[in-house]
Each structure stands twice: as structure tokens, then as C-alpha cells.
Amino acid sequence: MGAFGNEDLSSLPTNELRFMKHVHDNVHGNIYLDPLCLKFIDTEQFQRLRELKQLGVTNMVYPGAVHSRFEHSLGVYWLAGETVQRLKTFQGMELGIENHDLQTVRLAGLLHDIGHGPFSHMFEREFLPKVISGCQWSHESMSINMIDHIVDTHHIDVEAQMLKRVKDMILASTEFSELKSNAEKRFLYDIVANGRNGIDVDKFDYLIRDSRACGLGCNFQFQRLTEPMRVIGNEICYPAKEYRTVHKLFATRADLCRTVYTHPKKMAIELMIVDAMVKANNFLEISSMINDPSQYWKLDDTILKKIEIASDPELAEAKKLILRLRRRQLYQFCNEYAVPKDKIDHFKAVTAQDIICSQKHTSLTLKEEDIAVTNVKIDLTRGRENPLECINFYKDYDSGEKFVIPEDRVSHLLPTTYQDMIVRVYAKKPELVEAVSEAFENFQMRTYGIKTQVHATPEKKKRRVM
User: Strands, E, within 209-307: which ranges?
Assistant: First the structure.
């Protein structure tokens, strides 16, 4: 892997297999790794991704979901390169696509998740806000810092301009993006992380990889989009006849969000891990690592084991929570309801205090630390908007005109609402389930005048004790 020394690897032909090493991936088959990307892969910072499960603690509900961000990153690298190669083959002369562009997009695909924290998105969405007030940290921004750290630490010879474009591609779908719609070869920035309409190879890879790992079927075929795609007006467009495939992409993601990514039991486990990490944070200084790439790369899913086997008395409370996890003594899911669609626009996140304030006179008085509440948003990537309205299609290969398909011309079977907001409530101790469930029902009545949950909390669960 070090056979290329310190030469400028970006100048090597990027499409010749003799310069590449191959690995076999269980989703895409043989993946060929170019020399420059291997320089990044063969670092302790990138190898850390092996210790980050792609779906965090989902394997405690779906036992097969043990795949890592390492293999996902290789998959996105490969699909990103294949996408550019296809555009280069059919429109390369017209669009001015060069090997340099191919290398840049590949590198962006490889490194897009290099800054991810432990336990998937839980680290930045749930843990950090509890220990850092007003925290604006994101794994995409950390990826940018990690890339600079890797280049400096390992003296990787890569052009400054290529590195800047790689970073821009990683940030393209975030609020930190500074891309303009008329930027040169703007379409290249939509391949890895698409901020314009959400169709990108990152989703192509994880939808199939996650579905397979969880033992679920996935009838979305990304090839139906990548094979006929073409660039019109600096934007990747798709044949109009594939609008159903586009919708299936977003519908598949939403379905996985509900059944896998936000599974009630999985989220109960996450809530416990968050509480354990919060209790361990002062002693282990976990949150301080996000400011220093030289320390951050040491942080991964093994943090639980470090807490579990530590002998320090300061970690006693965190260890108790982890022991409960091992013994499957989880926070108890009481119930959930979907916010009525006419109330979503003015929805305010529900808190544990809201539930406590709805408790009626009982012999047991609930405390804030007895309850956990999650407010789960599930959408088709565009919030309450129809994602199809942001996607441009073309009629056929003889046409150079792009257009948006109006919603009323698509299908009457497609949804008219594009976002769910689900409120879930958990009791941190089994003996509190009945009291928490009743307070939750009271809250619904007070807020909406009706009980919006599908069914009452089962009596058997109410009587459960640890």
C-alpha cells in the first residue's frame, strides 16, 4: 500500500485497475481502491470507522445490524466514482469531466463520514446538547477537521484545490455549505451529499446495506436512476418515467426511519446510553474531544466498555445503567402518538415536565428524572414539502429541456402529507409505567381534547416490575 511513496498520487490514471487494490463488498461486489484513497484508508483515523456501527445500537433489536461506517464509506466511495465515470462516458466531452474530477468525488465519498461520533447520530443529536449548551457541532464539520488532521499527520500529498472541493462536497447538504447554484461543474457536488434534492449515493448505499443487514427487503433499485441520468443545465436530471423510482427512494428511507432507525426499543437503549455518557462525561471528558482531532479519533463505540470495566467510583452511576442494558432491564416504552397533521405547523417539542404537569392526584408523584420523552420527525427529506418538487426530469434523450413534474400529475396514491411527528414517552423504572402512561394520556387530552395514541398501554406492561 505504500509502494507509491510521496509522489503526487492524484496524477495517476484513476481508471486503470493495475494501480488499484480491490476488496470484496457484500453489497457492491468488488470495489477497486485507487492509490490516493488508500493513503487515507491506511490511517488510524480512517480505520477507527471499523469501531463505529453504522446503525449504532440497532443490533440490540435487529441482531444482524453490525455493519460499520467503514464498509459504508467504501460503498459510497465506489458509487460516487461509478456515477462520475458514467457521466464522463456519456457526457464527458460536453461537461469537461476529467480524471481529476473523478478522483475528487471518490475522495469525498470515502471521507464523508470520517467525523462521525459513537452510536451513529445519537452522539451529536442527543448526547452533546445535554452536556454543551447551544452546541452547534456536526459530524460533517468534524469530517472537515479530520481530513486536515489526516493530511498533516500522514503528510499525504494532495492538491490544495482538490482538498477544498472534497470538503465542499461533504458540506454540500448542510447549513455550512457556501456553494452557489452556478458554480463550475455544480452537478459534481450533488453526487455524495445532495443539498438540492436529496438524491445522492450516500442514500443509495445505506438504504440497501441497512435493509440487508436488518433482514428486511428493499425493492428500491438505484441503478434505475444512475444508468439513465444526464446533466442538463449544470444539474443531474432523471427520465420522467422514473418518477416512481424517485418517490420509492424517499419512501424507503421513511419506512426505515420508522421501523429501524427510530424503533421504540432501540431508542430506549439510546436514551440509557445517553444518560450513562452524561454521567461519565465530567470524569472521562468525552465532550472535550470534539475540539481536537488528535483526541477525537480515539472516540468510538468502545466507550461503553471503557466505562463498564473502569474501577473509578466516579463512574459508578454510569456503570449501573450499562449493567441494566446488559441485563435487558431497559427504560420502558409506555406509548406514542402521531401529532395530528393540522397541528404539526405549530408543534412544540414535548418535555418530561409537560407529562409531569399532566399528572392527576395519585399516591405516586413523578419526577422529571423518572421520564424520558422523544420527539421523532420522519419525513421524505424535505420536511413538510414534497421532495419531487425539487427534482428535475427530462422527457427523452433527444430532449435538452428539464422540468419538474407537478404533484397533481404524478399519482393520487402518493401521500398528501410528507412529514410525521411522533411523540414517545418512556418510564425509566418499570414500576412507574402505569403512572407515566396515565399522565401521558392526560397530556393528550389537555393538548388535543382527544387521546391520539392508537391504543392504551397494555395492562401487563403497567404491572411489570424490574
Answer: 230-232, 235-239
Residue the block writes with cell 414534497:
386
Question: Are 127 and 278 within 8 A, CB to CB?
Answer: yes
Please, is 400 exposed, middle or buried when counting C-beta atoms within 10 Å of its C-beta (0-12, 13-18, 19+)?
exposed
The helix (run of H) or strand (run of E) holding residue 332 is strand 332-338
Instruction: Mention every residue, 6+ apart, whose C-beta is less than 8 A from residue 369.
Output: 428
139 belongs to the catalytic site: yes
Which is catalytic among the residues 67, 72, 116, 139?
139
Nearest to 167 by CA among 189, 185, 149: 189
Q: At what angle do helices 99-111 and 139-154 cross, to 10 degrees?
A: 110
State the amino acid at position 298 in one-letter form. K
Contacts of 459 (CB under 8 A, 6+ apart): none
86, three cell numbers: 458514467
Cβ atoms of 202 and 193 within 8 Å: the answer is yes
- With 50 as the cut, is the pLDDT of residue 4 above it? no
Q: Which element (helix H / strand E) includes 92? A: helix 69-95
How far does the chain reach from its first CA to its final CA, in angstroms? 53
When pLDDT is cut at 50, 70 and 90, the band that residue 418 belongs to is confident
Contacts of 312 (CB under 8 A, 6+ apart): 283
Helix (H) or strand (E) holding 294: helix 293-296
Residue type, 33: L
Closest CA to 448 of 335, 339, 334: 339
Amino acid, single-letter form, for residue 122: M
Q: What are phi and psi of 183, to 5 degrees?
A: -60, 150
What distance lies between CA 338 and its chain's CA centroid? 22
Q: What is the pLDDT of residues 250-306, one digit of tens each?
A: 999 999 999 999 999 999 999 999 999 999 999 999 999 998 999 999 999 999 999
Give the span between the Cα atoms of 399 and 384, in whole angstroms: 32
pLDDT in tens, 306-347: 999 999 999 999 999 999 999 999 999 999 999 998 888 889
**One-letter amino acid of 449:** G
Residue keyed to cell 464539520: 141
Distance from chain centroid for Cα 270:
15
Q: Does the global pTM surpass 0.85?
A: yes
Residue 8's Cα: distance from chain center in Å? 33
